[in-house]
Every structure is written in structure tokens, then in C-alpha cells.
């Protein structure tokens, strides 16, 4: 049978018998009905999808329940919200503000983004104030002082989004401070270290004991400079244990990574140390 468009052209442009015209009209009527039916079907499907999304957004419990369905799974991501850069002789600053998108819990999303924005603004204000004060003392003399704040996506897979927001201060020597945000993409929850473990589990001791052992190994085998013994003359205090809310993130393999800032537990040459915790160390106390 000829294609619909061919029949239509034939009907409009060729002088044909009444029988042919009737056949073409009938075909055109059937095809128009199919096309209208398809349009109605697509329109209905789109309306249902929009309605479903509205219901999901307005009913959080349903949103979490549907988050395992691929079509409704949230797309949680990090984008760059703002960037501040300044260079003034020996002074320099670069402040990048991240923004988290796609959380089902919009209150949490707003709180996190407000915190990220406020922290970035505070860094910028402090930097500009430092410049004014230094110029009052040293005038136009070149003073080397800088600050950099940016973010690193440590993990981004189907289960976890882990973000490291750091501040690097440079004034003679340098120091770095990190803040980690680890989000469970399935639940939209901001994870905390204590919440990973069973109730009443002594996770601090378990993790600290492993880290002490690993520090000693690195000192012996990798020329590490971790403070495993106190040295009063050098004002060095040996590492004892992690904090209950110690910096951490979950890596691509689902392992806990305990993190320290520069100078927290080692000489500056160690940078910001991280310790990947083997599964067998914590499997008995994990939830």
C-alpha cells in the first residue's frame, strides 16, 4: 500500500476516478485518527509525568520512596555558583563557591548552599580587610599574602557525592583547612561519622587504633613524619585519637576515609593526610 503522504498528493494533484478518491479519503481519515490518537496519548503521558513530579516534590516521603525508580531518581550534583579573583601586587585571592543541586530535601539543600555562600563571603571580606590593614602599615611595599578557597569532588557515583571545600592561606608558610560534605544520593541525607556506625559502637577507638598503626608504618616504610610520640621541646603532641565528628568522606569503593588538616597530626610536608579504612576494620560495627 502507498504511503499516506503519497496517497494524499495523488488525491490532490491527479484527476482520478471517484473510486480512487473514495479510497484515498478513507485512508486519510484513518491516518488522521491515528495521528490524533498518538498526540492525545503523548499529551496524556506528559501530563501524567508532570503531575507525578509535582506530587513527588510536594510529598517528601513519596519522593524518597520513588527515588529508587530510575525515571524519578534525583540528579544530585555540584556546580560552581560564584568565583572571586583578585591580584594586587603581592596580594592574591581566589574564592570559588560551590552549589549543591538536586537534593529531595530542599531545606537541607538551602541550608548547605547558604553555608557555602556565607563561608565564601566571609573569606572575601577577611581578605579585603587584611589588605587594607597591611597597606596602612606597609604602604605600597610588596607583601606576599594570599588565600585560595575552592572545592574538589572526591566521590561522585550512583550512591555517594562527597565534596571537599578547602581554604589555603599563604603568608610566609601555608596552612590548609578542609570541610567535607558527604551526601547519600539514595536518601538525600548528609552523612555524619557517628551515624555510619551501630548505636553505642566505640568507633572512635577502632578508627584511632588503626590510624596509629598506619602512622607508624608510614614513618618506618615511607619516611613519614607523623607525630606518634610527644616531644615537649618541639611542642609536639602525639596523636591520641580522632574527634567524634572527625572530617571524613566515602570514597568510590564505599570505604571510609578519615581526613586531617595540615599540621594536625604531622609535619607540614605531609600535607593534609588521609587514611583509607579497610572494610575488615569496621565491618563489625557498621550499620
List keywords for this structure.
287 residues, alpha+beta, Heat Shock Protein 90, Actin, Chain A, domain 4, 3 domains, six-stranded mixed beta sheet, disordered N terminus
Walkthrough of the structure:
The protein is α+β, with helices and mostly antiparallel strands and 287 residues long. It has three domains: 55 residues, no CATH class; 116 residues, 2-Layer Sandwich (Heat Shock Protein 90), CATH 3.30.565; 96 residues, Actin, Chain A, domain 4 (Alpha-Beta Complex), CATH 3.90.640. Strands 1-2-3-4-5-6 form a six-stranded mixed β-sheet, covered by helices on one side. A three-stranded antiparallel β-sheet has the order 7-8-9, covered by helices on one side. Helix 2 packs across helix 3. It starts with a helix and ends in a 5-residue tail after the last helix.
Strand content: 15-25%
Q: How do the strands of the widest beta sheet line up side by side?
A: 1-2-3-4-5-6
For the record, the count of structural domains works out to 3
Helix content: 25-40%
Provide the low-confidence segments as ranges: 1-17, 34-67
SSE arrangement, N to C: HHHEEHEEEEHEEEH
The biggest sheet, with number of strands, parallel, antiparallel or mixed sense and barrel status, is: 6 strands, mixed
Q: Which oligomeric form is depicted?
A: single chain
Count of distinct strands = 9
Kindly provide the radius of gyration, computed on alpha-carbon positions and rounded to a whole number of angstroms. 31 Å
Note the gap between the termini: 66 Å
What's the CATH architecture of the largest domain? Answer: 2-Layer Sandwich
Q: So how many helices?
A: 6
Name of the CATH homologous superfamily of the largest domain: Fervidobacterium nodosum Rt17-B1 like
CATH class of the largest domain: Alpha Beta
Secondary structure category = alpha+beta
Would you give the CATH topology of the largest domain? Answer: Heat Shock Protein 90
What would the average pLDDT be, to the nearest integer? 82
Can you tell me the overall shape?
Answer: flat
Amino acid at each position: 500500500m502507498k504511503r499516506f503522504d503519497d496517497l494524499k498528493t495523488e488525491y490532490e494533484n491527479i484527476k482520478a476516478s471517484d473510486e480512487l478518491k473514495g479510497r484515498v479519503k478513507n485512508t486519510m481519515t484513518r491516518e488522521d485518527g491515528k495521528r490524533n490518537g498518538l498526540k492525545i496519548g503523548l499529551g496524556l503521558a506528559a501530563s501524567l509525568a508532570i503531575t507525578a513530579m509535582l506530587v513527588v516534590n510536594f510529598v517528601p516521603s513519596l519522593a524518597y520512596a520513588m527515588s529508587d525508580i530510575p525515571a524519578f531518581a534525583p540528579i544530585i550534583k555540584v556546580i560552581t555558583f560564584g568565583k572571586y579573583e583578585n591580584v594586587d601586587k603581592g596580594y592574591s585571592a581566589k574564592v570559588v563557591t560551590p552549589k549543591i543541586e538536586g537534593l529531595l530535601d530542599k531545606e537541607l539543600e538551602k541550608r548547605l548552599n547558604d553555608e557555602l555562600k556565607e563561608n565564601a563571603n566571609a573569606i572575601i571580606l577577611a581578605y579585603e580587610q587584611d589588605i587594607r590593614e597591611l597597606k596602612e602599615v606597609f604602604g605600597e611595599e610588596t607583601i606576599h599574602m594570599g588565600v585560595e578557597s575552592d572545592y574538589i569532588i572526591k566521590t561522585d557515583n550512583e550512591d555517594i557525592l562527597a565534596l571537599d571545600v578547602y581554604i589555603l592561606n599563604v603568608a610566609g608558610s601555608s596552612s590548609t583547612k578542609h570541610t567535607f560534605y558527604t551526601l547519600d544520593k539514595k536518601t538525600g541525607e548528609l552523612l555524619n561519622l557517628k551515624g555510619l556506625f551501630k548505636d553505642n559502637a566505640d568507633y572512635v577507638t577502632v578508627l584511632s587504633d588503626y590510624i596509629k598503626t598506619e602512622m607508624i608504618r608510614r614513618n618506618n616504610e615511607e619516611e613519614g613524619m607523623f607525630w606518634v610520640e610527644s616531644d615537649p621541646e618541639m611542642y609536639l603532641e602525639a596523636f591520641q585519637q580522632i574527634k567524634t565528628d572527625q572530617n571524613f568522606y566515602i570514597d568510590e569503593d564505599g570505604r571510609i576515609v578519615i581526613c586531617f588538616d595540615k599540621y594536625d597530626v604531622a609535619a607540614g610536608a605531609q600535607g593534609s593526610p588521609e587514611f583509607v579504612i579497610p572494610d575488615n576494620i569496621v565491618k563489625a560495627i557498621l550499620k
